[in-house]
Amino acid sequence: MTTKASIVFAHGLWADGSCFNKLVPTLLAEGHTVSSSQHGLDSLEGDVACVTRSIEHVPGPVVLVGHSYGGTLITKAGVHDRVGALVYIAALAPEEGETSQDQQNKFPSTPVFERLDISGGRIWLTEAGVGDFCGDLPEAEQKLVLATGAVPVPDLFSQQAPGTAWRTKPSWYIVANDDRAVDPDLQRAAAERMGAKTYDVDSSHVPMLSHPDLVLDVIRDAARSLAA
């Protein structure tokens, strides 16, 4: 019998698990078990633990899918022995000993970071910056992104945790060519460094919302590679 891989999602900053809602119904209908981690962006260690709980809750093998900072999370949590494939969506993917901030510092700062509000011990995306984050979505969807996203602690990108799953696990990478949150050149360099099967799309930072069909095809490809 063919066993379909489970799919575990990890969201990034200014998002929550619902950012994958254009993908989840289709994957469920196709027979996959799906879990979308709901982490609070309070600490890297805590967020990795949330993703690991999702991995352990679903049957294996598992395709881990990470968007943006979620790429850092799947890089760390993906060392779990039931994870067989990694899918990065416009994502960070630090090397062992490298923080998310270290990886970002190698490339020019992107526009979204010029339009943030640091208050209440958190970094908030603003109305002025939401267009840099997801400007190719309809206005109503941009407002929904702004309203529902979790907000990180200021030092989240400087925190460290062990694990570099892409060193030993097959990887897929979706590069968002029009990204104004994670530099597209960073994305291409990350994909090349990990030897990922790479796809390019003319998208903002949120291809899973603006180009869900492409993202679904990439996840399917990763899942097929794990079919037993």
Q: How would you sum up this structure, described in words?
A:
GO terms for molecular function: hydrolase activity. Residues 7-217 form the AB hydrolase-1 domain. Keywords: Hydrolase. This is Alpha/beta hydrolase. This protein is of the alpha/beta class. The protein has a single domain, classed as Alpha/Beta hydrolase fold, catalytic domain (Rossmann fold), CATH 3.40.50. 34% of the residues lie in helices and 18% in strands. A six-stranded parallel sheet has the order 2-1-3-4-7-8, sandwiched between helices. It has a two-stranded antiparallel ribbon with strand order 5-6. α2 (44-57) crosses α3. The radius of gyration is 16 Å and the shape is globular.
Topology:
Elements: E1 6-10, H1 24-29, E2 34-36, H2 44-57, E3 62-67, H3 70-77, E4 83-89, H4 100-105, E5 116-119, E6 122-125, H5 130-134, H6 139-148, E7 171-176, H7 184-194, E8 197-201, H8 207-210, H9 212-224
Parallel strand pairs: 1-2, 1-3, 3-4, 4-7, 7-8
Antiparallel strand pairs: 5-6
Helix pairs in contact: 2-3
GO molecular function: hydrolase activity
Pfam families: Abhydrolase_6
Domain AB hydrolase-1: 7-217
Main traits of this protein?
single chain; 228 residues; alpha/beta; Rossmann fold; 6-stranded parallel β-sheet; two-stranded antiparallel sheet; globular
What class, by secondary structure content? alpha/beta
SSE series: EHEHEHEHEEHHEHEHH
Helix content: 25-40%
Give unreliable regions as ranges: none
Strand content: 15-25%
What is the terminal separation in angstroms?
A: 8 Å
The CATH homologous superfamily is named: Alpha/Beta hydrolase fold, catalytic domain
